[in-house]
Write a structure and sequence with these properties.
Largest sheet: none
Helix content: over 70%
Structural class: mainly alpha
Pfam families: DUF6261 (PF19775)
InterPro entries: DUF6261
Number of strands: 0
Low-confidence stretches: none
Number of helices: 9
Radius of gyration: 26 Å
Mean pLDDT: 90
Length: about 240
C-alpha cells in the first residue's frame, strides 16, 4: 500500500514532494497516457502553489538586511587588511592575526545562502570574542566599533527573518494557498495513488518500481510531519 500524504504537510513541502514524484516518472519509462496527463496536471497545480506561497516581500526585505550585514563584514575585512600594511610592527602583527581568521572564512561567506551565511558570521563573531582575536581587535582603532556594527546587522537580519518566517506560515493559511494545497493533495492521494495501486495489481512489473519510489518519498515526508507535530504538541503541554 502506498501511504497518503498527510494533510498537515506544509504547502512548500507538498510542492517539493509532488515535483519530486512527477520528475521521477520519466526515469521509469512507463508508457501510460493517463499517468502522464495526471503528472502534468499535478505539476501545474504544484507551480500554482509555489507562486501563491512565494511572497516577494519576504525575499526583498531579507535581501536588504543581508546586504547591510555584507557591507559591515566587508568594512571589517578591508579595514583589517589595510592595517597589515601599517609601518608599526605591533599593529601589523595584530592585523595579520585577525586576517588569518577572515581569510579562513573568506569573502566567499557573503555568497552563501542566507542560512549558511548566518552560521558563518555567527561563528566569526564568537571567535572574535576570544584571544588572540579579541586582544588584536582592541589594539586596532575602529575594529571593535565595526565588529559591533556587524553584530547589530546580524541580529537585525535574524530578527527580520524570524518575523517574516512567521508571516509566511500565516500566509500559508490564507484561502488561496490552502485551497491549492488541498487540490494538490487530492490529485496525489485520490487520483495518482489510487490509480497506481490498481495498475500494480494488473501489471506490477511495469508500475511496481515507480510505486515503491513514491512510497519511500511519502513515508519520509510523513515522518518529518509527524515529528514536527509531536514536538509542537509537547511544547503546548509544557
Amino acid at each position: 500500500m502506498i501511504p497518503k500524504i498527510l494533510s498537515q504537510t506544509r504547502a512548500l513541502e507538498a510542492y517539493s514532494l509532488s515535483i519530486k514524484i512527477c520528475e521521477q516518472l520519466s526515469d521509469y519509462n512507463i508508457n501510460d497516457t493517463y499517468l502522464n496527463q495526471l503528472s502534468s496536471s499535478i505539476l501545474e497545480t504544484s507551480n500554482q502553489l509555489l507562486q501563491a506561497s512565494n511572497k516577494t516581500k519576504y525575499k526583498s526585505e531579507l535581501t536588504n538586511k543581508d546586504q547591510e550585514r555584507d557591507y559591515r563584514f566587508r568594512a571589517i575585512y578591508y579595514l583589517v587588511q589595510g592595517y597589515t600594511y601599517h609601518p608599526d610592527q605591533s599593529i601589523k602583527t595584530h592585523a595579520e592575526t585577525l586576517m588569518q581568521l577572515f581569510i579562513h572564512f573568506g569573502l566567499e561567506t557573503l555568497n552563501k545562502n542566507f542560512s549558511a551565511e548566518s552560521t558563518y558570521i555567527q561563528a566569526i563573531l564568537l571567535r572574535l570574542k576570544k584571544d588572540p582575536y579579541s586582544k588584536a581587535s582592541e589594539e586596532l582603532s575602529g575594529v571593535l566599533e565595526n565588529i559591533e556594527r556587524l553584530k547589530i546587522a546580524q541580529d537585525d537580519f535574524k530578527q527580520t527573518e524570524q518575523v517574516l518566517m512567521k508571516q509566511r506560515v500565516k500566509e500559508e493559511k490564507e484561502p488561496k494557498t490552502t485551497q491549492l494545497k488541498l487540490k494538490l493533495l487530492k490529485q496525489v492521494n485520490s487520483q495518482l495513488i489510487v490509480y497506481l495501486e490498481a495498475m500494480i495489481l494488473a501489471n506490477k512489473e511495469t508500475y511496481g518500481s515507480y510505486a515503491d519510489f513514491i512510497k519511500v518519498v511519502i513515508l519520509k515526508n510523513n515522518t518529518t510531519v509527524k515529528k514536527r507535530l509531536k514536538k509542537y504538541q509537547s511544547q503546548n503541554i509544557e
